[in-house]
Amino acid sequence: MRAYFKMEFFQFMSNKKNIAIYVILLFLSCYYALKIAPEYDPIEKVDVLEIEARYLTREEFLDNVVIREGMHYLTAFAVSIFPEWNEYDKARLDAIEKNNLEEYAEATSKWYTYSDKFTFESEVLYYNPGYYTYGNSYAVMDGHYAYLSSASRYEDYTEGKSDLSVNVFEERTALQTLQRLLHSYLPLILLVSCILFTVDIVLKDRQNPTLLQGLPLSDWRKLIVKGGVSLLGSILAIIPLLVGLLIIGSQYGFGHFNLPVPNYSFSEDLFSTITMGEYLIQNLLFIVVWFFFIISLLLLVSVMLKNEFANLLVGCVFLFAEFIYFSRGIGIEWNAQWYPTSYVQVGQIISGYRNYLYVSDALSLRSGLVVMGLCTCVFLFLIFLMSNHRKFKLL
Amino acid sequence: MIELKNIGVQFSGKVILKDVSEMFNQGEIIGLVAPNGTGKSTLMNVIMNYINPKSGKVILNQKLEYTNKKNEVKIHQLVSMMPDQSDLYNQISGKEHLKIYSSMWSSNQKLIDRTIKELGMTSYINKHTGTYSLGMRQRLCFAMQIVSDTQVMLMDEVMNGLDPTHVELISQILVKKKSEGKTIIVASHLLENLEKYADRIFFIKNGELILVNDLSPGFEEKKITTVRVTRMTDEIKEKFSKEFPKTNIQSLANGATLIDVRGYDAEKLGSIVEFLQENQLTEFSFGKVTLNDLYSMYYQEG
């Protein structure tokens, strides 16, 4: 079995298609690090001019407003909330001036909590204009999530677990960039790579049938070894991506594994934080489980349909099916937690953002592992039954 | 030893193998001879279980059958088939191929170097097989099977693309393997060569396995049984029949004429030579029916 693994792995690594995938990933990683990452413009950034402008406008208002009976209710409302709001903005400005980042973090955390308290469900106050672009119908929801998430993140910064910097606040460091990518398209890229690695892992042997058919190894074991090679190859796809992280790290710092990652709880509508280390390990675990799922699925399709295109199609259907049914708030109605396809956005599942979007508390790392694990077991059981049938031929 | 019991194979209603039963023993080289597409490879594929026969079974060492996948692995530990040269991995070296086969069958690693040396592959074995000529590839495939060192070896067209020196070399190795107790089944079109080392040769026709000795009794005997005349006109044949009415004469599709002289003494043989000389026929030889002749008789006549 070891010899067969060695042979399969060598073939895997010398397969031109697989080499091309690694090269493309390396290119994308470098392109992202050198071109896209420097242009990252977060909505929630450390913008002294903006804070100052807001502070001075409100301060001027408070200095000049005449408080009298019968004044407009909105004027009264502003008079009641602006002082505390400005207190936080002033503290932020002072902290920046003193370059005291912990104080800035503390004031900013309070500022976000306070801002959200009055903005969410308000008809006159708005979140950062960045959320209202491109006709975003969910701007308020996005703003609400971002403000509370930022409040939680900044609160954690005050605990002094890791070195602080503006780059950390704006989530530009290498680890935070990785976290942001895991929250968006990186899982999809890794899973598509896994599909591409696996589509021909069984069927390529049709090009060398007489060389391989008579090997003294059962078809089941051959398939398991092939799956193992594909899994290892898919995990190795992380390496070209690390090159990009090294480039980002050299520009903006690498960040720290103790940095906080906000975690949303739907049932309590509250944020807590987990460390970056925990977040990355959970992501890695979930992505590896996804690899298991995809590989076992494609091995099953390979032995059933014996067609690479069918493998590609089935793999992509499982990966992109969520786009067909996903709509914000649909979770409760659709029981989306029972579909493995609902767990593609690995980073969003772990951070709880997917629950926020589905308006459900059912999607979690745990439920994902159970659903994906069960599906993988079913696929493997079917492969076991088929490959052990007396008349089954792998090639 | 390997036993075939009532093997029947049909493809799209066409009978390829019909109730084939035969036993191949240890320390025996079996030759399979038949025109292309008559079932040689199918028979080997059935022995390897690459094809499920419609009926019958293959039994190894009187106990192992392809009844389940576990047994299939056990049989494949003991029975191997030479790979086709077109199936080699072009991007890796010949030595890598040998290492793969050796480790897959957990055979003695020393066999690798010994086989490379025996087959004269030292100068190119570390190069990628994509750079090999047909003969080099063929030798590598043969070497792969030798290093797998299984009890039963199946070789389909083993001599393809080889020059006479290497044909001879491989023939010698086959004889050596036979002396080690291996059962070797060879399908080949090099009939003269096959005749030299095969213990039993089978023709396949109409799905049946026919022992050559049954077609031509005395085929294996080392006596003069036949006078082989290269060119003999119909007129001379007629004349011959009149002069030797009790002697059987047979014309082959390849142009040769065989005169059956089984049991003839020196005097009788002398009179036949005299007749041939009188009729200006100088190209003739004494011996026995060759495999080529039998092939011609069996497959090329009607």
Q: What are the main properties of this structure?
A:
heterodimer, A: mainly alpha, 19 helices, B: alpha/beta, four-stranded antiparallel sheet, 11 helices
Question: Can you tell me about this structure?
Answer:
The complex is a heterodimer of chains A (395) and B (302). With 395 residues, chain A is mostly helical. Chain A folds into two domains: 2-40 and 175-392, no CATH class; 48-171, no CATH class. Chain A contains 19 helices and two strands. Chain A has helices at residues 2-14, 16-36, 48-64, 73-98, 101-119, 139-157, 166-169, 174-182, 186-198, 209-212, 219-236, 238-252, 276-305, 308-320, 322-325, 331-334, 346-351, 353-358, 365-387; strands at residues 260-265, 270-275. In chain A, strand 1 (260-265) and strand 2 form a beta hairpin. In chain A, helix 3 crosses helix 4 (73-98), helix 9 (186-198) runs parallel beside helix 13 and helix 13 runs parallel beside helix 19 (365-387). Chain A starts with a helix and ends in an 8-residue tail after the last helix. The relative contact order of chain A is 0.11. The model of chain A has no long low-confidence stretch (mean pLDDT 93). Chain B is α/β, with parallel strands linked by helices and 302 residues long. In chain B, 37% of the residues lie in helices and 24% in strands. Chain B is built from eleven helices and 14 strands. Chain B has helices at 40-48, 69-78, 94-104, 110-118, 134-148, 164-179, 191-197, 212-215, 234-243, 266-278, 291-299; strands spanning 2-11, 14-24, 28-33, 55-60, 64-65, 79-81, 152-156, 183-187, 200-205, 208-211, 226-229, 249-251, 257-260, 284-287. Chain B has a six-stranded mixed β-sheet, with helices on both faces. In chain B, helix 3 (94-104) packs parallel to helix 5 (134-148). Chain B is globular, with a radius of gyration of 22 Å. The model of chain B has no long low-confidence stretch (mean pLDDT 89). The interface between A and B is medium-sized, with 29 and 28 residues.
